[in-house]
Amino acid sequence: MKATLKGAVVVALMATLGAGAALAQTCEQTEFSSKTGQTYLEAEQAAMVKKDYATAISKLNSLRAMELNCYEEGAVIKLSAYIKIENGDRRGAVEDLLSALQKGYIAPADAPQTYYNIAQIYLQEEDLAKALEYMTKWQQVGGKPDRTQKWQLAVLNQRADKFKEAVRWAEEVRREDGANFKQEVYDLLLYLYNQTGQKAKLAEVLEILLERNPNERKYWDAIAGNYFAENEERKAFEVQKAMYLIGLLKTDEELMRIVNFYNRFNAPYHAARILEKEMNAGRINKNLERLELLANLYQVAREHEKAIPVIKQAADAGGGGAMYERLGRSYADLQKWKEAEEALTKALSLGGVKDRGNAYVLIGQSRYERNDRSGAREAFKQAGNNAGRSWIDFMNSEEQTKRALVCFEVQASVLNVQNEAKICKSLAVLGPENVPESCKTVKERLSAAEAKFNATPECKGQTM
Q1: pTM score, two decimals?
Q2: Which of 38, 95, 189, 281 is deepest in the core (most CB within 10 A)?
């Protein structure tokens, strides 16, 4: 870039050199004298044709020692500036050009180009402040920026952190380009709109850029960042979700962000599916913490069947008794009572169970559901808590009710036969031929029913 700028400055300066260059009205002379003319011509030839700058400088020094008119002095100053630019003495060239301007040796029509040349020299020196200062002076004396110069002004102001000015020039470049899309212009506007907080314009530019480059990560990041800055997390989530679906999220941190987003916005099943998929693919690190999270997500989503294999992995990965306790609870939720007891028993043996009493209650329940009532009672006693005692009370009540029902059935049988005997006795006065056949055995059946009542343990202490 510097070489290009230097060449442009030299070409522009050359256009103002020579005996035919117009001079300001303050200088009435229009030509060299015969004495100075030959020396100047030799200096110009040495500098511009032969590139013999040492000879050219020597000739110019000879001219400076002479008495020069304004026309001659102006030509000397401008040729000196040309030589200094070629030799890399940019500051010296600027001093010569400013001297020529101040003394009126540069015509008003050439002044804008001279100021522009000075700005380009300062730009080569990386002096952005001075470059912008003289770009401004150039415009003040009538300089009209073309598309290239507008773009230069946009970039210069951006580099100088003058973002509002940079926006103005970048927008002019965009308008001038019209339908001719230039990537660098939109990228600069993207940066500038973000710096100046112009969110609506930023969104419009991003939409255009994404339409043309849907797989360009930086544009998606800019949109998401914009939403984050505005505390619009739901919209940021939608952007992140789209980025995931098209394969732009690749690192552990990025993928975990989308998992957490799904969980935060009440979609635990989707969060679990992504987490499991990416762990299996090796893009998310599979460790105890992540396995616990995956199990949590499946359980919150009520996907207990899917949670169990994960909990097993977590238990095997060093989850200890706490993880086996959780596995037991999951089996209990699915009413897989045998597996629940095995997991909970292992949890208690490993240690680390936060509430051993509740673990024993679940073991007792698993035994109860499998009709191991004595084993259930033993587990509930070991629990030693209100839940365990409540279960024992419930079982006692259940057994008492069962005994009462057994005795009630026996008592009902006795009462039925007693009622039948009463009926038979009432019918006996009608004669044997009118008594039902069943009455012949009623006494034996009543004796048998009463004997059964007396022999039934559940009826012990009961009277008819």
Answers
A1: 0.55
A2: 189
